[in-house]
Amino acid sequence: MSNNDNVFHYLDSGLEDISIQSVYIEEEDLNLLLAGYKFNRFRLYIYYILCVLTGGTFYLVCRWIPKLWVSLVGNVCELGKADWVVVKNQWGDISIEYVTRKYYGGTISSVFSVDNSEDNNVSRLTSYRSDDILHNLHFFDHRYIRFIYSPILGKFIQNNFWKDPAWVSVDVLKNGIDREIHNEREIIFGQNLIDIKEKSTSQLLIEETMKKLREMSKFVCNVRTLRGNLWRTVSSEDLVPGDVFEISDRNLHIFPCDAVLLSGDCIVNESMLTGESIPVSKLPIDDTSLNILDLTSTNVRPEVAKHFLFSGTKIVRVRRAKNSITSSSADTGNISDDDGALAMVVRFNTTKGSLIRSMLFPKPHKFKFYRDSFRFIGVLAIIAAIGFLISTYNFVRLGVNTVLIILRALDLITIVVPPALPATMTIGTNFAIGRLKKEGIFCISPPRVNVGGKLNVMCFDKTGTLTEDGLDVLGVRFINQISHRFTELHTTVDTIFKNDSYKTNNSIPPILCAMTTCHSLKLVNGELIGDPLDLKMFDFTKWILEESGQGVSSSTLGLSAGSAPSGRPSSPTTGNGGIVPTVVRPPNSKQFDLTEVLNVEGKNSDGKPTPYIELGIIRSFEFVSSLRRMSVLVKRLRNQTIEVYVKGAPEVMRDICKTDSFPEDYDELLHYYTHNGFRVIACASKSFTDLSWMKAQKIKREQVEQDLEFIGIIVFENKLKPGTASVVETLKRAKIRQIMCTGDNVLTAISVSRECGLVNKASKVYVPRFVQGSSLSSRASILWESLDNPKDSLDSTTLKQIISVSQDFPNDYPFISPYEYDLAVTGDVFRWIIDYGDEMTFTRMLVKGQIFARMSPDEKHELVEKLQEIDYCVGFCGDGANDCGALRAADVGMSLSDAEASVAAPFTSRKMDIGCVIEVIKEGRAALVTSFSCFKYMALYSMIQFTTVSILYYYGSNLGNLQFLYIDLFLILPIAVLMGRTEPFPRIHPKRPTASLVSKKVLTSAIGQILIQSGIQFLVLVIIHNQSWYRKPTFNPDETDIKNFDNSILFLLSCFQYIIIAAVFSVGPPYRKPMITNVPFIITTTLFTFITAAILLSPSSLIISLLELENIDYLFRWYLLAIVVADFLISLVMEKYVFEVISQWIGIAIVKSDKKMFKKILNEMDTRDAVNYV
User: Fold this and answer.
1) What single string gives the DSSP state of each residue in 298-362?
2) Going by DSSP bridges, is the β-strand pair 457-460/737-741 parallel, antiparallel, or unpaired?
3) What pTM value is reported for the model?
4) Higher pLDDT pick, 502 / 178
5) In angstroms, rounded to a whole number, what is the distance separating the alpha carbons of residues 515 and 512?
6) Which of 629, 650, 687, 658 is nearest to 510 (CA)?
7) Which of 243, 265, 372, 461 is catalytic?
8) Is 461 annotated as catalytic?
9) Are the C-beta atoms of 670 and 712 separated by less than 8 Å?
């Protein structure tokens, strides 16, 4: 037993020894401690005997207290010898997982990757070789993640880290695996199936949501797989790592596993993962990308992501490789470059698995309500224990039968701590989720609904969230070669050719070439799909885009590729196992004619050059958020040079373009557009004269994106969404702080913020810049300058305004304090202050920063976490594309997406505007208040019944079985359910509802109502004892006397009290609509009031018999009804007016400082104490 205690000490301390292991699951952000145990057979049999003797009670106790079970039946042992493993996470939750042993017989390297062999225990490592035989597999599954024991390390290892050492060449991968290897890997990895364990019928009645989740998660389909050089159709359940399967099968619509694309190309919809429904193009993997494939990392590297097919994502389009197979060739085993994919990770170790696990095992949230609810239940349990002891003493005093004493005392425990209490706490949440679903808002984490009611800061992405996703092109401006300045704004493509530079020849402006080629658009069934910004840009040019298999082959551009046979319209073919270039050409231009291109003289029948203008995109470097740009290699028809076109953020062009290529008015024009809320994309280009097609496929991105010539800018209108301004104003009135967190330019972000009202137009906005050094230098210095007046600045450490003694402030806005200001922080400054800045400066920046621009996805995530560290309850709303980390880290994340549920956020809105934020906050507040009301109602129900039963126990009586049934089933259950049905109030109140059950307001109300209801019961008891017709209960030590005056009157009075408390606790404005709007609740309480009144005033003989009621004096019945009315009026007046005043008095008497850190920081930053300089 002492060894077990030591193990739990180790588990609590996080230390390791031979029987204990620590594990970090990165994708879950989960820390686990594993401890190995073997059964102690003798103590196990004692445990079984105790379970039988106690009628299962001891079994329940051990289920509730796992440490007790572990200490009783287990002995600590080495992990490799364990029968079962104790798993403890960072929140203290303990689970028991049994170890499965299976005969294997394969090599160690076929189970454990070389990457898993990082360990300091050299003696262990040197005693094993990778080709040693592993006779038995020891493994267990925790949260649907498999852990396999490694004899090399003496530890359990996740099998999703495994990578076949033979995966070094794409050509090798295309051969697939044989049946023997498949059988081995099926033992190791299990089935490729996300299969949630089924529960019993009784459990499913309680957890219907789990059944729906299982239906959603379980996906099985048939796939054509290459095994042993033969193609065969198998179930997706049978896929294992290394299997090659065909994705061009018309019956395959969703990827059944995580895989890499070997040949062909495809377009997929990854909205389930990112929340963004923009299709993503996937290309075949090459040897370089294959070698850097890292399955141990949570996120797939950008270099590999373009080849990676995620489980559960939808297939939009697939194109076959050149040598596509036929059914006959497949059946005969003729292997060719089929458009197959390699399944890399199976079962729950996929990205889709992460989504399901996030639903099944949400992170515990440090929310006061849930923490205090358990404390409150503990207090009720103490009251029950006291009542148990007092009742037992009383029954012994009266000489009651021992069996009856035990039954009655246990009854008292179930009365004080009602079993239905946890269920009633979720009623408001369930109604809220149902209403949100009707509004097109889906929730995968119900506990976050209540958290939504406590939000005090809301972060928004800009593009696609506050502003329209599809930006309109305002126009383009390029360089006038004569003046070396920007041309006028060209609002149509036709005016570009009217420029002097292009009037005299038939050349194409470079800016137009960049706009038509530098994008990620794809053609699917005759329709262009891709990023909305790219779509708008390409539409502006009016050019035509064609893809291989749809009228254009690789020979068009004179490249070394064979002719491409025509394929199915839905699955066109690509040449040479790779991708034939996408071709763009001007509208109304003559389509390519091979005979004319082959004309030796290159002239048509008129003696003039053939007027073909076609550009082929032979290679693309996708947009990378850290680089903030993308580039393409383009081959022009009948031209030997290969041209490079780059588009990206204007700021990055300084680093990759020649300095003398920028026009003189570059900074001036950029400043104008960004200050006025326009989005600017800069373009650059250069040419390679000696670059062949083969070299173009191997050239590195760094070589392409350097020494470029700047060619111009594309200006987009960043229009606000119609509902943005009204939502921002609503949140502002509700005193919920709003922050813009975007990857866009800081000046554009400020302009949009002022336009939508997120930043007051009259407030000063200070923007930082480095006056010395950069974000990479610890000795850098930052200057915070006013956007409108560079001479106006902040102290770089305190972030307070530097005000001259003689400085005057303009009084253009008399209602705006001259000391009010906001900060617009850039990503590089944000990173520098985190890495090198002062902590005080950083926290002050967090509370004053309204705009965070040029933020990378990781920096957005970090911003959310830093805000939480200073006690903000943070919401984040984004389109899901680059916001996944921030959405998941936020207390309440809301993704705007067409998907019903995505791994991106707890909430997903199918309405693509931020109106969902208002709905979630309103429903969150209503659900939170409802949870408090239901909790208080159940507490009062318990205390009222506790008082009734305790009084009756004193006289040797009790409530009858049918009386209990009438109260619990017919009164309490429907009332508790329906009182949570009240809808949220239309407006958001500036003050947030309390989240603490031990707050002054809640405790004052609960204790006050307990005193009122108990007091009235004692008052009525005193009154009836003084009536002439009153008769004391008959005491019988072996049988409880039910039919007596005490029982009948207290039963009827308590029935009225349950209804009264429900009406009093049905909170209306400012968080919910008035109680009268909840029609089912009004009807139910009215009906029960009349029924109870009828039982009191005129009960039928059947009712009297069933409920075992005494015949009460008729006049006293009306007297009791009058007491009930008085009870209602007293309770209502006290709840609405008196208790609130008392709680305020208590608050004044108990002066407490602000607990929230951000409030303390704001108090310290009293702007009137600004630094003064003479």
Assistant:
1) SS--HHHHTTEE-TTPEEEEEEB-TT---HHHHHTT------EEEEEE-TTSSHHHHHHHHHHSP
2) parallel
3) 0.71
4) 178
5) 5
6) 687
7) 461
8) yes
9) no
